[in-house]
């Protein structure tokens, strides 16, 4: 199954997918585990549900409608691709930005607008930002880009 897109077909934000993405991506990157571990480990599973629920409450408090249950979607994403590591984890390992701001920004803005407390979302977003800014560890290398070969070049 493909990961849901945070943009609905009409160009508006799919708040259910955004809430699930915050839970799966944020916790997967911070715990440095594959999706399957997020639902197999009881503590991580409780966190997934709590983060998705907090994100849903933030979205609803600002008047956004959800198309489903973010907690159920988050669990389904993990169960459908248990061996998959979230791209945010790969980005952090490579020393790159995660793009998590595109998910956490709208959710945290909704929480502020709606007056909904969002301590878990705030901590996850801040920790990911901090990890994105950390210096690369000595001895780690960025993946090499393939150099064009002579056969690749057209006359």
CATH C-level name: Mainly Alpha
User: How confident overall, as mean pLDDT?
Assistant: 87
| Alpha carbon gyration radius | 17 Å
Helix content: 55-70%
Please give the largest β-sheet. Answer: none
Strand share of the residues? under 5%
Query: What oligomeric state do these chains adopt?
Result: single chain
Helix/sheet category: mainly alpha
Q: Give the overall shape.
A: globular
The number of E-state strands comes to 0
Q: Termini distance?
A: 42 Å
CATH superfamily: N-(1-d-carboxylethyl)-l-norvaline Dehydrogenase, domain 2
Overview of this structure, please?
By secondary structure, the chain is mainly alpha-helical. The protein has one domain: Orthogonal Bundle (N-(1-d-carboxylethyl)-l-norvaline Dehydrogenase, domain 2), CATH 1.10.1040. It is built from seven helices and no strands. α1 (15-31) runs antiparallel to α3 (42-61), α1 (15-31) crosses α4 (70-80) and α1 (15-31) packs across α7. 34% of the residues are buried. The model is unreliable at 1-5 and 151-155 (pLDDT under 50).
Question: How is the topology of this model organized?
Answer:
Elements (H helix, E strand, L loop, with lengths): L14 H17 L3 H6 L1 H20 L8 H11 L6 H8 L6 H14 L4 H15 L22
Helix pairs in contact: 1-3, 1-4, 1-5, 1-7, 3-4, 3-6, 6-7
